[in-house]
Design a protein that fits this description.
It contains one helix and nine strands; from the N terminus they run αβββββββββ. It is mainly β and 141 residues long. A five-stranded antiparallel β-sheet has the order 1-2-3-7-6, with no helix packed on it. Strands 5-4-8-9 form a four-stranded antiparallel β-sheet, with no helix packed on it. The longest helix has 20 residues.
Length: 141
């Protein structure tokens, strides 16, 4: 490779690195667990102006909670920071007819698992065993 070609390749690499590094967004496409086969979820994490992170979840093709187990009524979202207990973050806004759901929340965590569970009620204090989605996430720099 000649000197000019090497400079062009190096320049393209630098531009790509800067574009990725300055984007401030992490994205994950998550397949469901065997409990809810065929469901998919997208997680987007964006750095806010305050230094926190906005986490947006969008799930599609999700089986209604009542069909996943006796008495299950709601999908609860949990953030589990490294080495710490799970923190209930909220409830997936679920549309049973469309079989999709979404939620947005802010966090200060840089590295954490996102877990979505089907639960008997939204006020549970620890995640149950009916895990629908689970993904390890890293916030953008």
């Amino acid at each position: 490779m000649n000197k000019v070609s090497k400079q062009v390749v190096a320049g393209i690499g630098l531009v790509l690195a800067l574009a990725i590094g300055c984007g401030g967004i992490s994205e994950y496409t998550v397949a469901s667990t065997p409990l809810a086969v065929g469901a998919d979820m997208k997680i987007v994490i964006e750095k806010t102006d305050t230094g926190n992170f906005m986490v947006t979840l969008d799930a599609q093709n999700v089986t209604p909670p009542a069909r996943l187990g006796e008495g299950l009524t709601v999908f609860v979202v949990w953030f589990v920071p490294n080495g710490q207990p799970a923190q209930r973050t909220g409830q997936l806004n679920y549309d049973e007819d469309a079989r999709d759901g979404s939620m947005a929340a802010t966090t200060t965590f840089r590295s954490f698992d996102v877990i979505v569970t089907a639960e008997l009620s939204a006020d549970v204090t620890t995640p149950g065993t009916n895990i629908v989605f689970q993904q390890t996430c890293q916030a953008p720099e």
